Input
Amino acid sequence: MFKIILSTIVSLSFSFTYGSVLKTGQIQSYNENGNVVTNGSVKDDGYYQAGKARSYTRSSTEVVKDNVTGLEWQDNVYGVQKNWDEAQTYCNNLSLDGNGWRLPRIEELENIIDFGQKDPSVTNNIFQNMSGNGYWSSTTQEDNNSYVWDVGFYDGNSNFSEKAGSMNVMCVRGNTVSSNFARDDNKSIVKDNVTGLEWQDDEWAVYTEKTWTDAINYCENLSLGEYNDWRLPNIMEMLSIVDRSKKDVMMPDAFININSVAYWTSTTYINDKSSSWIVNFYGSVYSGGLSNAMTKTSTVNVRCVRGGEFAEPSTQKDAGLISILSYLLF
Output
């Protein structure tokens, strides 16, 4: 008999399609010293390249369509700078190959970051009028509504800035998919039913602190919920569980074993390859929701993930089948 054990279901509006988050754009593996590794000994972002392949179409009207999320992006001007209120008005009034434009949410901006590029950190030859500076989102900081989330496209970091300041504007058109998270109490796993990712949520997700290399090896050797195919999540995957509607610990309610500080990702920081991206989950007044780089020899918290799409079709197929069975069977 089939049985589903769920204690909490939480819906959040994140910019994903069914099946996976997008690839980060990183295609090489690096060790803790920042050297390229080609023998598969470092199971990092460049090794797995987990996620759905990016696909864009650029029109003659300089509109970029994301063929994965369905969103359309304005890319006809370079360096339009406005304060936040002016940016909202600018997008709402924009007429470019039709109407329906708006200021993007922070999750939508983060979804076009290519962490294999810099200045700007977007896909080459697609976004042709992007600056490497900060771009406004429509997402207000929960702790202080005079601040708004933004993305700096020099390296792809998420930050927040005062609404009265001046920042670049790029408008978006289209709708996003709502993520929802469900916890299996018996397995101490939280599943995102949109991306298909399953997250470690046992007590060790609160207390485990390691260097970057040790964090990778910890996840590779983790056995939880009868599964042993865990790995360290990449930056796009970790950002997918940030809940910026929270004032305190910025993680969906389905997670119950939470450390409010930062967690490692498997994605190397392209500007300093001896560092890796981390995501902070502390309350937004204390920099929660920010992504930034940390030296790989530092000690940071670890939370592992499983599932998703991979470079090899056979791996992708097996991961998808396991993910479905793990959700339906006890």
DSSP finds seven helices and 21 strands in the chain. The chain has two domains: 9-53+176-328, 56-173. Residues 1-19, 313-330 have pLDDT under 50 and may be disordered. The first strand starts at residue 9 and ends at 14.
